[in-house]
Automatic annotation (TrEMBL):
Transmembrane regions listed in the UniProt entry: 12-32, 404-423
Protein name listed in UniProt: PI-PLC X domain-containing protein
Signal peptide (from-to): none
UniProt keyword annotation of Cell cycle present: no
Key words of the record: Membrane, Transmembrane, Transmembrane helix
Amino acid sequence: MLSTSLWRLPSASAILYLFLTLFSFFISISVACFNGNCQVLEACTAATDCGSGLYCGNCPASGKNQPICTRGQATVPTSVINGLPFNKYTWLVTHNSFSIVDAPPLDGVQRLTFYNQEDTVTNQLRNGVRGLMLDMYDFENDIWLCHSFRGQCFNFTAFQPAINTLREVEAFLTENPTEIVTIIIEDYVHTPKGLTNLFTSAGLDKYWFPVSKMPKKGEDWPTVTDMVLQNHRLLVFTSVASKEAEEGIAYQWKYMLENEPGDPGVVPGSCPNRRESKPLRSRSSSLFLQNYFPTYPVEAEACKEHSAPLFNMISTCYRASGNILPNFLAVNFYMRSEGGGVFDALDKINGQTLCGCSTLASCQAGAPPGTCKSIPAPNTGSMSSTSGSFTGSVQFSKSSASRVHSPSLLVLWFFYLPLLAFLKTTINTHLIGF
């Protein structure tokens, strides 16, 4: 404790000493974790401070400039509770998965379009994404991934041939023999058998889930265990109804309910169904895709969107659908958040549907529903899966990486320690009478 004689010092010196003492206390807190030991919501100064599945980021759009460790990976629900029907789970989906910041443009062409994601499709899959929304077009005598301009692909809106991305999916499924991936195609391909030939060329036909085995009247899907045993680990849906009969590709809205995408899907308190979809209260389809992204994506705003507004919209759509939680949650910039974001939302949904607990981390495999483990609240540890058959990698593209600005601790200590030593000497001189 400070000596009472300290208070006989000039008030400015006493106040300064107290300030520096408190400053020392806060500095010690700020460096309490480092070298991979920091957990969710803890302060950080570099990505290397944060634990597995986390990155160091902030959210200026919400007024939160202090960098903290932020989740960058999903907990794959089958790594906690396995063996249930596919439609009992909720999976993370990336909207326009191919539209990646820093994706190289065509030679000699300046790309003039918007972007929706920040890392490669391979990295998205490694981070727990299990659904890809891909826009496919006939372009340059091939099938390309592209944003449309009046329903057509142009060189200034094109990204790359679709087979490149599909080969990434094939490599992931081959390397991870227990994982299931869903591809949802916004389909502008008119070439006869174009999609069939494309998926065959990419080597994905061996994983194809056959349309004949998809439930037609809202029944449960096969269990994930059966799907893995049968190697039916790729679900593909098209937006063109005729291709189900022509190519054996499932027509999306025959099997899936969907709310309105874009700006209508983020209006607080409202959750209308997409025009092509059956009403959300319909029970004739057993899959529900919830879109949550604005029409025009803004990287810097995504962290704010993935906080309270996302959770509120999940509740809104839950009521609008007659108490059905989504099987697919589609977002832009999936890693952006104020700490837990989309990943926490998925854990809450899966916890409720798979085991009747408040979050997936509380579930106990083999235990009766509602038998929940106690976990710290709020969660301060990474909930990324480490028991699955893959390893994730939090990786932004170079220009879109979260920019966090913290003062250098080395600089702070360089000026602070000599000042504190000088002040203590001055104080001691006063106290002993010199």
